[in-house]
Amino acid sequence: MSKESFQDLKPTIWVGKRGITNVMIEEIRRQIKDRKVVKVRWLRNTEVDPEAIAASAGAVLAEVRGRTLVLTERRGRSPGRDSRNI
């Protein structure tokens, strides 16, 4: 999936005032396994660390824009070669 198509992707995970929980991380893992790409959005009053979410979910942080991040499936690439747009 190209970066241009990330914009058209609808968020499938919404983070509320409780922040990221273990249940959310498991849901992100499940969706990445099924969809290969997941878009996560969070509330303005919620503190979120996109890199920590990607690491916890075992995914690649593909893009961060405002209060939205895109995670993709990890594919045997070295961590230094992940594409990021932060």
From TrEMBL:
<dbReference type="InterPro" id="IPR035920">
    <property type="entry name" value="YhbY-like_sf"/>
</dbReference>
<dbReference type="InterPro" id="IPR051925">
    <property type="entry name" value="RNA-binding_domain"/>
</dbReference>
<protein>
    <submittedName>
        <fullName>YhbY family RNA-binding protein</fullName>
    </submittedName>
</protein>
<feature type="domain" description="CRM">
    <location>
        <begin position="1"/>
        <end position="84"/>
    </location>
</feature>
<dbReference type="InterPro" id="IPR001890">
    <property type="entry name" value="RNA-binding_CRM"/>
</dbReference>
<keyword id="KW-0694">RNA-binding</keyword>
<dbReference type="Pfam" id="PF01985">
    <property type="entry name" value="CRS1_YhbY"/>
</dbReference>
